[in-house]
Amino acid sequence: MKKNKIKNISKEQAIKDVDKLKKDLFNFRFQKINGQIKSYSKISETRKNIARLKTFLRSKNA
Predict the structure, then answer these.
(1) CA–CA separation, 29 vs 37, rounded Å?
(2) Domain 3-61 classified CATH 1.10.3470?
(3) Dihedral angle computed from the Cα positions of residues 33, 34, 39 and 41, in that order, rounded to the nearest 10 degrees
(4) Cα(9)–Cα(45) distance, rounded to whole angstroms?
(5) Domain spans, the chain
(6) How far is CA 14 from the centre of its chain?
(7) What is the DSSP letter of 58?
(8) Where do runs of H (alpha helix) occur along 1-62?
């Protein structure tokens, strides 16, 4: 998720996206353990997207 795309979403949508990404990250970890994941970069990309959204939410609260 790009920065300019994050700026255009609402606070509620950002919270929903964080929850969805956390679930995806949980599933990626299980896929990694089972050897089913094709691209390990999805894990780091998901973690970065969660961090971006949390930063966006923190700036909205300030």
Answers:
(1) 9
(2) no
(3) -10
(4) 19
(5) 3-61
(6) 10
(7) H
(8) 3-7, 11-34, 41-61
Q: Are 52 and 10 in contact (CB under 8 A)?
A: no
Gap between the Cα atoms of 2 and 5, Å rounded: 5
Nearest alpha-carbon partner for 59 in 16, 1, 2, 3: 3
Question: Tens digits of per-residue pLDDT, 13-50?
Answer: 999 999 999 999 999 999 999 999 889 999 999 999 99
The verdict on pTM exceeding 0.90 is no
Residue type, 44: S
Q: Which two tokens stand for residue 49?
A: 């997207």
CA distance 8 to 57: 12
